[in-house]
Amino acid sequence: MIKRNLQALAQRRLELSPAVALLGPRQVGKTTLARELAANRPGALVLDMELASDRAALAQPQLFLAAHRDRFVVIDEVQFAPGLFSALRPEIDADRRPGRFLLLGSASGELLRQTSESLAGRIAYLELAPLAVAEVLDAAAPDLGALQSLWLRGGFPLSHLAADDEAAYVWRQDFIRTFLQRDLPGMGVRVPAETLRRFWTMLAHVQGQLFNASQLGVALGGAAHTTVARYLDLLVDTLMVRRLEPFLANVGKRLVKSPKVYLRDSGILHALLGLATVRDLQGHPIAGASWEGFVVEQVATQLPADAQLGFYRTAAGAEIDLVIEHRGRRTGVEIKFSSAPKPSRGFWQAIDDLQLERAFVLAPVPRRYPLSEKVDVLPVWDVAQALPNAG
């Protein structure tokens, strides 16, 4: 079993807050992590809202929760029980000791809306992403084959740990089918599964590009841009797609203001594009954009909760893939799919525009080395060195 980096942070949040919401896509390992946390709490109660028996047990939530007030309660797939949040508020107010509830959910947007209305000031939020490089590789002795496998298969544990690449590919195809045909309808989504699969595949083809709803609408047979935006919201809310907003700095330049879109898991991206092996991937035009999205997620999942992440691009061509702002400090990150990366002139111009103290180039290189006085090239397993809390 792979120990998740989030486990220690989840434990700390449970020591401070009456309720913790652990968000993440289906099959990412939330239930496994929750059971690890529950194992340290005698008498813990684990309920799954996909099970009719557990939903029946919570048919009268105020009575049930009050009767189990002395127990640590885990409620899995809580988005299937939206009425539960109004019952949690008075129960938490009756006993505000920390570590009472752990809520697991797969639809972040809806959960955040529901809990912000009912549980403001009573709940902490954490997100469990697919497996990261830091959870799979030993930074002291990194295995490049393991890195390549993680990039190809993605970070869903059952895909990553599959017996071979073919088994991993089949698992991801099954995951996509189940997600579209069962999970989304179970959340109340009424868009045809085939329509959403086409849209998801279109996003895979434009990985890392600026989102153009009108253009995608034409490709979807004339769908309105508002409809396309709604489809994007669905995939963002279910944590399958990252919408990366531009960093709108006051630099006196004409800035690009459309967001970029990335499929958050590289393995799902490859499955949608029919790429089952490393050979398939390396010979495909999407390889560079796939690597970029893979590295974006390595950065995003390790950021401090109060950090801001965006990209910077001007109409004149200044550009940097990621800008991190944290407590008054800005750091730039450029991502290159090259063993000898050479940033463009636009990268250096972006450093000047934003007056960055430090910038990094993340690339598939074996070791760190400097490009200039304030720009270093880093291997992806050293991504923590590019983050604001690295000092």
From TrEMBL:
Keywords recorded for this protein, A-Z: ATP-binding, Nucleotide-binding
Origin organism lineage: Bacteria, Pseudomonadati, Pseudomonadota, Betaproteobacteria, Burkholderiales
GO molecular function, one term: ATP binding
InterPro entries: AAA+_ATPase, AAA_14, DUF4143, P-loop_NTPase
Matches recorded under CDD domains: AAA
Protein name according to UniProt: ATP-binding protein
Segments forming domain AAA+ ATPase: 16-156
Domain of life, source organism: Bacteria
Record-linked Pfam families: AAA_14, DUF4143
